[in-house]
């Protein structure tokens, strides 16, 4: 039977070698036996997509590279039959990635890697208990290049307690001196379920965070990284093609603990309970998509992009004119210049992207 081509597949590997105090993701400490069993159930869960091939596969976590060399091989072999002809694999990694595992990534044709650096500033490294040096990351990047992986993203966190704009720029000076193509920035969130939350770590001051964000945008622009989404900056041509599938509200499958999917007009989220997962009880939340919720996601995701969304794509997808349909809500925003229409796209004004959520509430509720 001919398989159906789908844009993307997300694969969640929930294991980590250490737990970061700010983290509220679905993760557990790495354990070899659990990881072996997890891969067995992941393989079973994937059979729900036995009719599909995926163009982009994103292996996230957790820390996928916390898997052993053998387990990584096993994971890529499991994924093989779900890859389309010109597949593109991205993997998340910690900075401690070793060359023997990089060789596995090369062998299975991984094209992009996202590394959770967060900060090189020793004061803030101490707060998050992670102590990677620029020299270590530089040599990791050299090693990745040597093995043919040059599409490299580094994650940056800003908004630490007592962090200044100079501190943030200090980090960015090092980030941009490295041979990378993409930087994802995250303002520190002190979320429930995190160690910081339990320890009452102060949440960043919103005004300060905004100033830091603006400084990041200005600095990265000068350094040739253009902002294409609220928090994401890339050299031209190196935008995250997987995340663009999400932001353009295209279909994606999802497997693994807590993974979401949007396939055939159904949104699903898998269970976050490892014990349920290891009994093969995968689905936790299922949301059928009607036109209204479909529009909601399309607008909400599209307006987070610097270029916004194409008005004719809205027309094609929903057989409706966005400007007419949302006339009452968007007219004041167009009049005030918060929304702009350019080359057939509608987008938030550059300066308003940081507070996209505020404008989305005005449009969508
Ligand atoms: S931030 Fe990443 S590496 Fe740290 S605990 Fe969370 S999932 Fe694991």
Summarize the structure.
The chain has 365 residues and is an alpha/beta fold. The protein is 39% helix and 26% strand. The protein has 15 helices and 17 strands.
Question: Mind explaining what this structure looks like?
Answer:
It is a single chain. This protein is 39% helix and 26% strand. The protein has 15 helices and 17 strands. Strands 9-10-8-7-6-5-4-1-11 form a nine-stranded mixed β-sheet, with helices on both faces. The chain has a three-stranded antiparallel β-sheet with strand order 12-13-14, with no helix packed on it. A three-stranded antiparallel β-sheet has the order 15-17-16. The chain has two domains: 4-245, pyruvate-formate lyase- activating enzyme, CATH 3.80.30.20; 308-365, no CATH class. It is globular and about 60 Å long. The chain is of the alpha/beta class and 365 residues long. The longest helix has 17 residues, at 206-222. It starts with a strand and ends with a helix. Iron/sulfur cluster is lined by residues 16, 19-20, 23, 25, 27, 61-63, 94, 116.
């Amino acid at each position: 039977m001919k398989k159906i081509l789908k844009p993307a597949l997300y694969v969640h590997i929930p294991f980590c070698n250490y737990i970061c105090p700010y983290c509220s993701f679905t993760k557990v400490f790495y354990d070899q036996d659990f990881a072996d069993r997890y891969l067995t159930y992941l393989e079973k869960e994937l059979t729900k997509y036995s009719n599909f091939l995926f163009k982009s596969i994103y292996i996230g976590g957790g820390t996928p590279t916390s898997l052993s060399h053998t387990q990584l091989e096993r994971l890529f072999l499991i994924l093989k039959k779900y890859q389309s002809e010109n597949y593109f694999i991205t993997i998340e990694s910690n900075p401690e990635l070793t060359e023997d595992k990089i060789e596995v990534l090369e062998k299975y044709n991984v094209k992009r890697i996202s590394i959770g650096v967060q900060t090189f500033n020793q004061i803030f490294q101490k707060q998050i208990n992670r102590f990677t040096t620029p020299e270590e990351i530089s040599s990791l990047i050299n090693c990745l290049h040597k093995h043919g992986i040059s599409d490299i993203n580094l994650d940056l966190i800003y908004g630490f307690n007592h962090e200044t704009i100079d501190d943030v720029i200090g980090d960015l000076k090092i980030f941009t001196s490295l041979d990378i193509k993409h930087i994802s920035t995250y303002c520190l969130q002190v979320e429930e379920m995190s160690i910081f939350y339990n320890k009452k770590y102060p949440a960043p001051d919103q005004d300060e965070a905004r100033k830091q964000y603006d400084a990041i945008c200005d600095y990265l622009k000068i350094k040739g990284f253009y902002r294409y989404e609220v928090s994401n900056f890339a050299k031209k041509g190196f935008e995250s093609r997987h995340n663009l599938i999400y932001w353009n509200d295209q279909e994606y499958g999802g497997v693994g603990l807590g993974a979401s999917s949007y396939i055939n007009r159904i949104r699903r989220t898998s269970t976050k309970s490892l014990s349920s997962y290891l009994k093969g009880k995968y689905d936790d939340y299922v949301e059928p998509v009607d036109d209204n919720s479909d529009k909601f996601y399309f607008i909400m995701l599209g307006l987070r992009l610097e270029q916004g969304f194409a008005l004719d794509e809205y027309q094609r997808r929903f057989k409706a004119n966005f400007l007419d349909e949302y006339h009452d809500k968007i007219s004041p925003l167009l009049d005030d210049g918060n929304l702009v229409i350019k080359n057939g796209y509608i987008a938030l004004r550059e300066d308003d992207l940081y507070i996209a959520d505020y404008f989305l509430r005005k449009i969508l509720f």
